[in-house]
Design brief:
Number of helices: 10
Order of helices and strands: EHEHHEHEHEHEHEHEHH
Number of strands: 8
Low-confidence stretches: 214-222
CATH topology: TIM Barrel
Helix content: 25-40%
Strand order of the largest sheet: 3-2-1-8-7-6-5-4
CATH class: Alpha Beta
Largest sheet: 8 strands, parallel
CATH architecture: Alpha-Beta Barrel
Distance between the termini: 40 Å
């Protein structure tokens, strides 16, 4: 199966729906399959959290969800969002979503995961910061329906030497569908992950990595609320999609028969330099 490319806009729309629409259009031009946002409610953020006002300014309203979903579909892409609290589940179902994303922070919240499983046909879960036993428990909860576990390293940005793509091999042993949520920069890790047989590739998307952040915590190595500086621009996504086409071409078919061109070489050279039958 050709891996689906997810452009994660997340909250990098900066609370500006016109910017969000521009990003959706740019993702479509790059050839992306799915655009992902984030659905939280700032009322759940503790008043003591220094970023509460920022969360409030970046929160998507119900109307915003409908507008962005419509914009994605008009541009030939699927709308996807990360659900951050159980209260949001009924609305996201009302929005018509059959597929939902769960962040790395919630893989270990098993009751929440059970509610997600019971309400959506397909669940995609990132596994950053997750212990082996937590991932195995999540697989047990999700296995009654369609699901994907995304390998993820929750470092922002993630150096290539810490991408740990070998973990995909372990995930493929315990689940029928794996993906890669990438926090490296550039297209090297995504291309290598595609060659390892993933079903989804997710990567942060921006129009300009120099756009102003809305969190002061980026320099401390913590996950920012908006992610322009750790995201990649449309040209990187175009390169990934170009390599996806090359990968699909090189894969060929799964047939074991000798190809016609090989048959000609076989007939010409077999026995030519020695009678070894």
């Amino acid at each position: 199966m050709e891996p689906k490319i997810i452009a994660e806009i997340a909250s990098s729309h900066n609370g500006d729906m016109e910017l969000a629409k521009k990003m959706i259009k740019a993702a479509a031009r790059a050839g992306v399959d799915i655009v992902k946002f984030q659905s939280w409610q700032s009322k759940n953020v503790a008043d003591s959290d220094p970023d509460k006002d920022r969360y409030r300014s970046l929160e998507l309203s119900d109307e915003d969800h409908f507008v962005l979903k419509d914009e994605c579909e008009k541009n030939g892409m699927e709308f996807l969002t990360t659900c951050y609290d159980a209260e949001r589940i009924p609305f996201l179902k009302q929005l018509g979503l059959r597929k939902i994303k769960v962040s790395s922070t919630d893989l270990k919240h098993f009751n929440f995961l059970k509610k997600i499983r019971g309400n959506f046909e397909e669940v995609i879960v990132s596994a950053g910061m997750s212990a082996e036993e937590e991932i195995l428990k999540a697989v047990e909860i999700l296995k009654s329906g369609k699901f994907t576990i995304m390998h993820c390293v929750s470092i922002y940005p993630c150096p290539l030497e810490k991408a740990n793509l070998r973990k995909l091999l372990w995930l493929k042993k315990i689940t029928p569908s794996v993906g890669y949520s990438d926090h490296t920069q550039g297209f090297a890790a995504p291309v290598l992950a595609m060659a390892m047989g993933i079903d989804y590739l997710e990567k942060h998307f921006t129009l300009d990595r120099n756009l102003q952040q809305t969190s002061h915590r980026v320099g401390e190595g913590l996950a920012p609320i908006t992610t322009h500086s750790i995201a990649d621009e449309p040209d990187v996504f175009k390169a990934i999609i170009r390599w996806r086409k090359i990968y699909q071409t090189a894969l060929g078919s799964s047939g074991l028969e000798i190809q016609p061109e090989e048959q000609l070489v076989r007939e010409k050279y077999t026995g030519r330099l020695g009678k070894n039958s």
